[in-house]
Amino acid sequence: MLSNGHATCLRMPGRLAHRSLGTAPRTQLLSNNAALRSISTTTCASVSRRSVTSTRTSASTFAPTLRTAPLRRTLTTSAPRSSQKPFSFLTAYAFQGKPRHSEDVTQEGDSSFSAAADESEASASGAAEDGAKRGQIGFPADSEIGRWRDELLRGGEAGEDSLMCTSMGSAGDVAIGVADGVGGWTENGIDPSLFSQALMFYASKAAASAPTDGNGAPNRILAEAFEHVLKEPLVVAGSATACILTMDASNGTLHSANLGDSGFVILRQGTGKHGVFHASPPQQLGFNTPLQLAKLPKEWIQEGSISNTPKDAAAWECTLQHGDLIIVGTDGLFDNVDAKIEIPQFAKFIKEKHHASYAARHAGADKPTDSLQEDREFVQVLATNLVEYAKICQNSTTKQSPFEREAARYGIHFPGGKIDDVAIVCCLVIER
Predict the structure, then answer these.
(1) How many domains does the chain have?
(2) CATH code (residue 317)
(3) Which of 190, 244, 303, 345 is 20 to 30 A (C-alpha) from 381?
(4) How far apart are CA 39 and CA 55, in angstroms?
(5) Residue 54 domain-assigned?
(6) Do 412 and 17 contact (CB within 8 A), yes or no?
(7) CA–CA gap between residue 25 and residue 22 (Å, rounded)
């Protein structure tokens, strides 16, 4: 990261400069009732979002709206099965870029995007039918990284965020991750999405070619990707946070490497107060100043410049279980949706609603319903709607956000959500 001098890249959003100092009010975690009523439970690839200029409806307490049916024991409908491959991973991703121009703010009908990933290939198999018409930022469409990005996003736009979801060899292992380009670089004429897109592109290549002898750990994938970014001529400068997870299909082992304020949460029924098995803590040097990988031209390096390396990433591992749900996201999610309360409640709500919808759609069918297909749909529906909910929370000034609480710790009054790009990858663990 850079210092506060010539080329600062600290995250200090424009809205913050217009907020008065003080103590944030201690309000409850709230949700938009109308938003929950409009949540989709089908496999549509996109859901319309409210314009950031739309009138906000009143909020109501979050938890009571979720108890629409008895809670299921796990977030999967599939029962554990036995085979030579004990685990498979059902993955899907969704994303939405924040408005960058005045016409984006007033435009109606913008959509967030999601795509399912096949459990064996972990490659995108879904696409948004009606994409955002805004110009794509980042790498040119005719470049290798640009083609990879466009195939991944399928007409959508993730802004300064990027993501990956790829298989690791033929054993069913999977690597997923997100990166968030630090937006402060725009003040120096640098496109922040170049760094994040390059980092995830090279991370996906490193993961796909990783050996099966344990050398495909996420910290090694991140290190290899970062080395390529430093050599990438189209990335003149930039920085990004990053979070990469790998999952072993043979034994269910998850490894993670997290640098900055992107992160992940693992939901497991029966653990913790809300079924949260683990939530990765953010790595920050101060308020809104995360650790980050950086590429700094020599003439821009100053005393106090901050430039982290993959060795600074926090490593963590665990053994997964059948029904575990993993959600990886950039800070556009975690700054606006509480990881330990809202996300598990939201996931249960979506599971219950989708299960009822799936059963109704297949009522009277000659063949019994396919629980694995239901789970595949659920993961995609969850990713899509979680992005939608995060965007609604960003535009609220009445619901207390995690970012608001963090700002209050530093004596800053910042009511409501923080508008930002959002990128999410969801993964449901199935014991086969």
Answers:
(1) 1
(2) 3.60.40.10
(3) 244
(4) 18
(5) no
(6) no
(7) 9
**Pairwise CA distance, residues 137 & 186, whole Å:** 12
In a domain, 178, yes or no: yes
The residue segments making up the domain with residue 281 are: 20-35+68-431
Can you tell me the mean pLDDT for 156-173?
92
pTM of full prediction above 0.85: no
CA separation for the pair 147, 130 (Å, rounded): 19
pLDDT tens-digit map of 218-269: 999 999 999 999 999 999 999 999 999 999 999 999 999 999 999 999 999 8
152 occurs within a structural domain = yes
Residue 275 has a CB neighbour count (10 Å cut-off) of 21
Instruction: State how beta strands 238-247 and 293-295 pair.
Output: antiparallel
Please choose, from the candidates 266, 279, 344, 337, the residue with its C-alpha nearest in 3D space to the C-alpha of residue 35. Answer: 337
**Is residue 43 in a domain?**
no
Residue type, 367: K
